[in-house]
Design a protein that fits this description.
- The chain has about 350 residues and is mainly alpha-helical.
- It has one domain (about 5-180, about 190-335): ABC transporter involved in vitamin B12 uptake, BtuC (Orthogonal Bundle).
- Helices cover about 70% and strands about 0% of the residues.
- It has 15 helices and 2 strands.
- Strand 1 and strand 2 (about 190-195) form a beta hairpin.
- The termini are far apart.
Length: about 350
């Protein structure tokens, strides 16, 4: 192994690690606020890549009907809650969901998808898939928000299995590979850096900085931090747990879909590829103890580097090597952390 190979492997490791870091941050964000371990995080990644591929190929966007179904089901639940609480005036969100779904159907069926500029293709992909995050929270997790973490984990696994089936139905079994954002390469001496890798790292850093500024400088961000630190105290101060849950799922879906768009030019994505990708982000989140954002991000980058170098030395065992990282981390945390019985 010479210096050039080390540089190439390091570039791949940091690129993959940047994606894993985003997924690890979203997993930590969702878990700290809602106590939900978001197993379906990877489905947002896969759906984002596959939807982008369909747009670039000019195929019919059947994924829009997933959005329509979720909007209709959510509206029905809102009407049911309205009836139970004996209120006469529905929330403005009720007609807004239906109008948004109708607009997206019109755009998906009328736009010349394959000829759209790359930026508009990305915006359309985000507009189709990002709202599914809070809609899934409304349908699946909001009714059982007070359940134990074990119940929430079981439901999260069930949702993952259901979404994998939806992915097969909507996108089919074939893999997707999209066009890169740019074809140029950056030369540093004798090393060439892929431009798509630079896009991945730049967007990942931008999203991380944006999340930091949101949680540190905005009122809504501080409210979500309060909900993460003390759910009961935040509720007593008037911070809605429903709002916090939907906001976290919105961020998780945004990060997941954007990650899928970023990595689709680099690797081939299948309908069930998201689980393995998010699982590596989960390893990074475990290294951070599901509470520390910086440690989770560093751990995710470490996962990417170990995976990359394992591919060179022992490609058949790279997944085993990556997931073996969980064992010493869990052992160390088990020996150094205080154990307490779960509150009823």
């Amino acid at each position: 192994m010479n210096l050039q190979i080390v540089a190439l492997l390091g570039q791949d490791g940091i690129t993959n690690g940047a994606i894993y870091a985003l997924l690890a941050l979203s997993i930590v964000l969702v878990f700290t606020v809602t106590r939900i371990l978001l197993i379906p995080q990877g489905e947002f990644v896969a759906f984002g890549a596959l939807t982008m591929n369909m747009i670039q190929n000019g195929q019919r966007l059947s994924v829009v009907w997933l959005l329509v179904g979720l909007c209709l089901a959510s509206a029905l639940l809102d009407l049911l809650d309205l009836y139970r609480q004996q209120r006469r005036r529905p929330s403005l969100w009720l007609p807004a969901k239906l109008i948004y779904a109708a607009v997206m159907v019109w755009l998906a069926l009328t736009l010349p998808l394959a000829t759209l500029p790359m930026l508009l293709q990305i915006v359309l992909t985000l507009a189709l898939l990002v709202p599914t995050g809070p809609l899934l929270y409304r349908l699946v997790f909001q009714p059982i928000a007070g359940a134990t973490p074990l119940v929430l984990l079981i439901v999260s696994i069930a949702l993952h299995v259901a979404l994998v089936g939806v992915g097969l139905l909507v996108f089919g079994p074939d893999g997707a590979h999209t066009a890169p954002f740019s074809d140029s390469n950056l030369s540093l001496g004798s090393f060439n850096i892929n431009s798509q890798a630079l896009w991945v790292m730049a967007v990942s850093i931008g999203l991380i900085v944006a999340l930091f500024l949101m949680f540190e400088r905005t009122l809504y961000g501080k409210a979500l931090r309060a909900a993460a630190m003390n759910r009961m105290g935040a509720r007593l101060m008037g911070i809605s747990p429903v709002f916090a849950g939907k906001a976290m799922f919105l961020l998780a879906s945004l990060i997941g879909v954007m990650s899928g768009i970023l990595i689709a030019p680099i690797t081939t994505i299948y309908y069930d590829s998201g689980f393995l990708i998010s699982l590596k982000g989960f390893v990074g989140a475990i290294i951070g103890g599901l509470v520390s954002y910086p440690v989770a991000a560093v751990g995710a980058v470490l996962v990417g580097l170990i995976e990359s170098f394992s591919t060179f030395w022992a490609s058949s065992y790279k997944e085993i090597i990556v997931f073996l990282l969980i064992i010493p981390v869990l052992l160390w945390r088990s020996l150094t952390s205080r154990h307490a019985e779960e509150e009823e």
